[in-house]
Design goal:
Chain lengths: 369, 429
């Protein structure tokens, strides 16, 4: 591929993950190409809630989240990030969930993430709009929310300022040895990093990926109704369970004063239409925790698809059986939280350095072995 | 359980009223819904001081044969029917045939100062005035394009406003050519003459465009660019509108195919006003701006066709085509002068909900891309105002249509049919 433009790294996909990789690689002095057929951050990144959160039920996922959350601190003052450190408040409906919160806060604390139990009285001081008779909860005060599509755009622009090249509106149609071919028959040569989320199988069919649909609804501006990102402690059952469809209470105060309401998960739904039945289930779940939501005005609803691997962990590393092909995809609902850490881990691997966290749990070879 | 109608009509303006009446005349069970408390739409909006025109009163009288559903707003499309928000909760309305008569909204175009309090749409000013907005003694400038300006000015004057002038962007020569064509449309000529008589003494200036509105916290005056240069006019109120655009959002939500006419979409229909979705008809302004006469004929046609009486619908086609001819005349003669598209500068706000300026949208070629990066179109108008304006300015049109069609209570989206007492308790701050 001698007649092709040559790069040190060709990043396919400019969602939050691809954008983070392009940013991290260009910061190392690599000559980077970015290829994105649609808007920057226009896929799962645009549909995401933008909650920076550590989930503790998988130690590998927790290590990646913790590593990544540290790097998010660099964006706390960035206007485009719309970074708001509202903290995460996990809500326990009963004593059983409250006890589970005890275990979880200990796990988070041992990973270096500050978390503490709150009793029922404190819970209602923190969030008076919650329905009565809840058992308490767990507060993770350092967590935050951001606006992912603008962060993706910022990261791409930063890479471009370091002389990266953006192939906007272009699609990769093939991965010939040593590079990529675009839909306008242009070829680029150099190591390739595929960060195309749900579209991964188009280029790397050996890596299984399912699209898990989600719905969100946003309201008009109601500042001061809720103060923290609120989740039910049963959330992980919905997020990490394998039920074909599930909903969970997941409500976020946006910095605008709007309230963003989630969350739903569906494996079998393949169309992007808003499903009234799913929205109804999801809202009922939210009303069950915050009855006052019922009278608020909804402005918009939308859907998105989470790129989901069979074991729920992202693919971060070398493409099995290929030379100079890398992959960063499959972050499911945690792509925003873990994008920055994923990018650093991957760039370390590409440069032949030892990553700061153990890369083995994310190695793509785990599914093809 | 969904209420079910043989024919459900959305929108109770002249089109929807005619449609409901025609369908009911065949014995069909007809539901007619509108977001407003009274029927009439924009053209026949209830006036607190003045009696409705005879045609409107006659149309209202026929409501006896239909189920009139006031203050019903369509929010979403569900498998069993339309989810409709009402003051007391929500309902699911099923139908065998659906007639969309959602009409038009004003084409509002940005120019420096257009977001000042005291500046509003020409049709908007007319509607507010009819509802009792106090305009008596206020100095009003009416500007923009088309016959709507005369109607708005006449209403404002009838409610005691001092109309300082009507500023029409079309040139005097074009307006004269249009007037000469009126000979072929005696009813329209009489209508125009009657309006002019009600506006005796009010200057009507052609080739004139309001290029700027002045004021600090409130409108104080406007700058009009006309054939004899630029003049400043002090005023309390500016009513400015550049004609109408079809309101196609519900049709789009239902999956009806749209087609582009000029810069704005309209609903595609066949000779019997059937949309691309079986069982769904569209009539009046949403199939292309045509005015009151077209609206009434098409409403009647759609009502017949939706009730299964295609012959009766078919028989009205020639009459409708003739009426559409007049609309085409308006389109040609009141086409917008390109200078209107250049009024907004980089600092002019385009998205009023989120305060996004035209300059902030430079470099974006797609509504979604711009929305994600700038919030343009994310507000309570759901991109209707900025979407039409940006399409008109040749930037990019609004894309897609998702529930809620209009801002609606979360309880409505959740399918709750009645409100619990606490549902309106939280008002925010």
């Amino acid at each position: 591929m001698s007649a092709c433009a040559n790069y040190d790294l060709i990043v396919i996909g400019a969602g939050i993950v691809g954008a983070s990789c392009a940013d991290a690689a260009s910061a190392e002095g690599l000559r980077v190409a970015i290829i994105e057929p649609g808007p920057i951050g226009g896929g799962a990144t645009a549909a995401a809630m933008g909650h920076l959160v550590a989930m503790d039920d998988d130690p590998a996922e927790l290590a990646l989240a913790r590593y990544s959350l540290r790097h998010w601190e660099a964006f706390a003052e960035l206007e485009e990030a719309e970074f708001s450190r509202c903290g995460t408040l996990w809500v326990a409906r009963n004593e059983h969930e409250y006890q589970a919160a005890r275990t979880r806060s200990a796990r988070l604390a041992s990973a270096g993430i500050q978390a503490h139990l709150v009793d029922a009285a404190t819970l209602y001081e923190l969030e008076p709009a919650l329905r009565p008779d809840l058992a308490g909860g767990m507060l993770v005060p350092g967590e935050a929310v951001v606006y992912p599509p603008r962060v993706a755009r910022h990261l791409v622009q930063r890479a471009l300022a370091r002389s990266a090249t953006l192939y906007a509106g272009r699609r990769v149609v093939a991965l010939p040895t040593g590079g990529v071919r675009l839909d306008n028959d242009t070829c680029l040569s150099g190591p390739v990093l595929v960060a195309t989320g749900c579209a991964l199988p188009e280029l790397l069919p050996m890596l299984p990926m399912r699209a898990r649909k989600g719905h969100l609804v946003i309201t008009d501006r109601y500042p001061h109704l809720v103060h923290h990102q609120l989740l039910e402690l049963g959330y992980a059952d919905s997020a990490h369970g394998d039920a074909d469809s599930s909903v969970a209470f997941n409500v976020q105060p946006r910095p605008t004063g709007q309230i963003l309401i989630g969350s739903s998960r569906e494996f079998s739904a393949t169309d992007a239409e808003v499903s009234p039945a799913m929205v109804q289930r999801m809202l009922e779940r939210a009303f069950a925790f915050i009855p006052a939501l019922r009278g608020l005005q909804a402005l918009r609803s939308w859907t998105g698809f989470r790129p989901t691997t069979p074991d729920g962990r992202p693919y971060l590393g070398a493409v099995p059986g290929a030379r100079d092909q890398w992959v960063a995809a499959g972050h499911e609902g945690l792509g925003v939280t873990t994008a920055l850490g994923s990018a650093r881990l991957l760039v370390d691997l590409i440069l032949g350095r030892q990553p700061a966290i153990d890369p083995t749990p994310y190695a793509p070879s785990r599914v093809t072995a | 359980m969904a209420k079910r109608f043989d024919v459900l009509v959305v929108g109770a303006g002249p089109t929807g009223l005619a449609a409901a009446q025609a369908a009911a005349s065949h014995g069909a069970q007809v539901g007619l819904l509108d977001a407003q408390a009274r029927p009439g739409g924009q053209v026949w909006r209830h006036d607190v001081r003045h009696q409705a025109p005879r045609a409107a009163r006659e149309a209202f009288a026929t409501l006896d044969n239909v189920t009139w559903l006031a203050q019903h707003s369509v929010v979403a499309n569900e498998p069993q029917g339309l989810r409709v928000e009402t003051p007391g909760g929500s309902e699911l309305l099923g139908y065998n045939a659906l007639i969309l008569a959602t009409g038009a909204r004003e084409r509002l175009l940005p120019f420096p100062g257009w977001t000042l309090p005291g500046v509003c749409g020409a049709g908007g000013a007319q509607a507010l005035t009819k509802q009792g907005w106090p305009v008596a003694g206020k100095r009003v400038v009416v500007a923009g394009s088309g016959p709507l300006l005369l109607a708005a000015a006449a209403t404002l004057r009838a409610h005691g406003a001092r109309v300082l002038g009507i500023y029409e962007q079309a040139s005097a020569a074009t307006v004269r050519r249009f007037a000469s064509q009126l000979l072929h449309w005696p009813a329209r000529a009489a209508q125009a003459a009657a309006l002019r008589a009600r506006l005796a003494g009010v200057p009507y200036r052609c080739g004139s465009v309001v290029q700027r509105a002045h004021g600090e916290a409130q409108l104080q005056g406007v700058e009009v660019d006309g054939p004899r240069g630029t003049q400043r006019i002090d005023c309390d109120l500016l009513a400015v509108g550049y004609g109408l655009v079809p309101q196609v959002e519900l049709a789009a939500l239902l999956g009806c195919a749209l087609q582009q006419t000029g810069k704005h979409p309209r609903v595609r229909v066949d000779g019997l006003l059937r949309t691309s979705v079986p069982g769904i008809f569209a009539a009046g302004e949403i199939t292309g701006i045509g005015g009151l006469a077209v609206a009434r004929i098409e409403g009647t046609m759609a009502g017949h066709a939706a009730a299964g009486f295609d012959q009766e619908a078919h028989a009205l086609r020639a009459q409708r085509d003739k009426a559409r001819g007049f609309a085409a005349l308006l389109d040609t003669h009141f086409a917008l002068d390109p200078r209107i598209h250049r009024l907004a500068d980089a600092r002019t706000i385009v998205c009023r909900c989120e305060d996004i300026t035209l300059g902030e949208l430079d470099g974006f070629g797609d509504a979604r891309d711009a929305k994600l990066a700038t919030r343009c179109g994310m507000g309570a108008c759901q991109g209707r105002l900025c979407g039409s304006a940006l399409a008109e300015l040749g930037r990019f049109p609004r894309s897609g249509s998702r529930p809620p069609l209009f801002p609606a209570r979360l309880a409505t989206l959740a399918g709750h049919t009645s409100l619990s007492p606490s549902d309106d308790a939280y008002r925010g701050s």
